[in-house]
Design goal:
mainly alpha, 12 helices, disordered C terminus, two-stranded antiparallel sheet, 60% helix, single chain, 2% strand, 293 residues
């Protein structure tokens, strides 16, 4: 999903951002169980949002999903894991900076260590050595940092191609782009740098979209025919959970990795011979989306 709400630049970060929001679009919807309390005026852009979501659905159906399915057919689990690990390692730069912006110094130190270990011992991040050393992947972005410091989210909005968002998180995307080294490689690397960075972004987005294919049926069943409200409530609930770090006793993250795995591995009762889908843990900028630690 490339966030068309931003000023378009000659960078490669937009495809990756597309996939990140598509994760929220599908996995959030698949696993949400609690509606978000809203006022009558909490969705003033509903008409625009529904129209944009319809266009996004069409683009996904005719372009993004077919490409993702082709990706699945030409790659194996080892290659897919290596691709996800590589981009997840790059994302740890963004996560580390936002840790410190939110004064989470312990997490910041852990995430810096993750990046160093995976970039060296993990061969440029292709292998997630840090997780085996009890350095888990955290989930922070600039939109969360703005929320922690009291910046209001504004109304729910659906961005062209990118999907669920709000004004604060849209601004956050710009901040995250400046924290992504691929952005600078694209800007200052000339034509070659731009092509390499754009290609990397496309591969990243395609891999992320491919990881979401098993969740689609679960999302369709859970929405009960009202995809718009379901996706909206799921997105808002999840973002609030991330900002509050799940501190509220009644809070429940719709993207709990346990809930996702349970939903995706559930075998339909009317298909006793079908094999359960393989669930993947989730991450925010680099999918699958992962629960905060």
């Amino acid at each position: 999903m490339t966030k068309s709400g931003m000023v378009r630049q000659k960078t490669c970060f937009t495809p990756a951002l597309y996939a990140a929001n598509l994760s929220a679009f599908l996995l959030l919807s698949a696993c949400s169980s609690q509606p978000v309390k809203q006022t009558k005026n909490s969705d003033p852009w509903e008409s625009w949002n529904k129209s944009t979501q319809s266009v996004n659905d069409s683009l996904d159906k005719h372009i993004f999903k077919p490409v993702a399915e082709a990706y699945v057919n030409v790659t194996n689990a080892t290659i897919d894991t290596g691709v996800r690990n590589f981009f997840s390692n790059i994302n740890d730069i963004d996560v580390s900076i936002n840790d410190f912006l939110q004064l989470k110094f312990l997490h910041g130190g852990m995430d810096v260590s993750r990046f160093i270990i995976n970039s060296t011992v993990g061969v440029a991040g292709l292998f997630d050595v840090a997780s085996s050393l009890d350095l888990p992947k955290h989930n922070e972005d600039f939109g969360q940092s703005l929320g922690v410091w009291g910046v209001p989210s504004g109304p729910y909005m659906v961005l062209p191609v990118l999907g669920p968002s709000n004004p604060r998180d849209t601004i956050g995307l710009i901040g995250d782009a400046f924290m992504n080294p691929l952005t600078y490689f694209s800007i200052f690397g000339g034509f070659t740098g731009s092509m390499v960075s754009t290609g990397a972004g496309v591969v990243n987005a395609t891999g992320k979209r491919a990881d979401l294919i098993p969740a689609e049926k679960v999302m369709e069943e859970g929405s009960n025919g009202n995809r718009y409200e379901f996706i909206k409530n799921s997105y808002l609930q999840h973002r609030q959970y991330l900002i509050e770090d799940g501190k509220e006793e009644t809070s429940d993250d719709p993207l709990s990795s346990d809930d996702i795995d349970s939903a995706l591995n559930k075998t339909p009762s009317n298909a006793p011979n079908s094999a359960p889908a393989t669930g993947k843990k989730a991450t925010v900028d680099v999918l699958p989306i992962q629960k905060k630690h």
